[in-house]
Design goal:
The chain is mainly alpha-helical. It has 2 domains: about 170 residues, Luciferase-like domain (TIM Barrel), CATH 3.20.20; about 40 residues, no CATH class. About 40% of the residues lie in helices and about 10% in strands. It has 8 helices and 7 strands, in the order βαββααααβαβααββ. The mean pLDDT is about 85.
Length: about 230
């Protein structure tokens, strides 16, 4: 997954991974590639930019002021990988995220902002361009964004943007695929013939007995020195 990157950098990274997979004899599916692109939707393009500008600018210009030792802790990548990464940033003249203007964030597709129609087109173009099988971030709150703005944005995304990328029945992909396991105790009992064993733990004062979480009661511990404090 690529995060907080311009479109061209994400495409280059995905293409490189696909080539490496092909070299090793593996045909990487689209679902293996996801891009994280902060997105904001409002009624019109003008309204969306007016509402989103301060908050999405905060994410890059303030929220991402992270010390290098946290961005790249020891062992996070090899020396060769780090040199290649820095070399690509220099070659592409990529500015530090804290120095990016709002217009640069829009032009280089660090973020996507606009009306439902604009955002649908932008997300579709982005996925096609980089070969992404999924997008993360179109329904998230950003920085100091007020709750009313978050809820409005998420409702518009769910009702007017997401359906564009689903089949005619509107079901998300995870509801089409066979689940890896039963999704509830009742479902597991119906399939296996008996309920799953419940989670149990040893608790202080319980000796060697395992206490079932759902039925357990841990006796209150009263500090004698505080018993009459009130």
């Amino acid at each position: 997954m690529m995060v907080f990157s311009p479109l061209w950098f994400t495409k280059m990274a995905f293409d490189g991974l696909r080539e490496e997979c092909h070299r090793l004899g593996y045909d990487a599916p689209k679902s293996m590639f996801n891009a994280c692109v902060p997105t904001y939707v409002a009624e019109t393009d003008e309204q969306a930019h007016r509402e989103a500008k301060a908050h999405l600018s905060w994410v890059f210009n303030t929220g991402l002021k992270i010390p290098d030792q946290f961005f790249f802790p020891l062992g996070y990548m090899s020396t060769k990988s780090f040199r290649n990464f820095i070399g690509l940033l220099q070659k592409g003249k990529v500015k530090p995220q804290v120095n990016l203007t709002y217009d640069e964030l829009i032009v280089d597709r660090y973020i996507i902002v606009g009306s439902p129609e604009t955002v649908k087109n932008e997300l579709g173009h982005y996925c096609d361009e980089v070969g992404a099988g999924g997008m993360i971030g179109p329904g998230s709150p950003y920085g100091p964004m007020p709750n009313w703005m978050v809820m409005k944005h998420m409702q518009i995304v769910s009702e007017e943007v997401m359906p564009e990328f689903r089949e005619a029945d509107g079901l998300p992909d995870y509801q089409r695929a066979e689940p890896n396991s039963q999704r509830s105790r009742a479902e597991l009992a119906a399939v296996k013939g008996k309920p799953a064993e419940t989670a149990r733990s040893r608790v202080t004062g319980g000796g060697d007995r395992l206490i079932e979480h759902r039925l357990a009661h841990v006796a209150e511990v009263i500090d004698p020195t505080m018993e009459h404090a009130q």
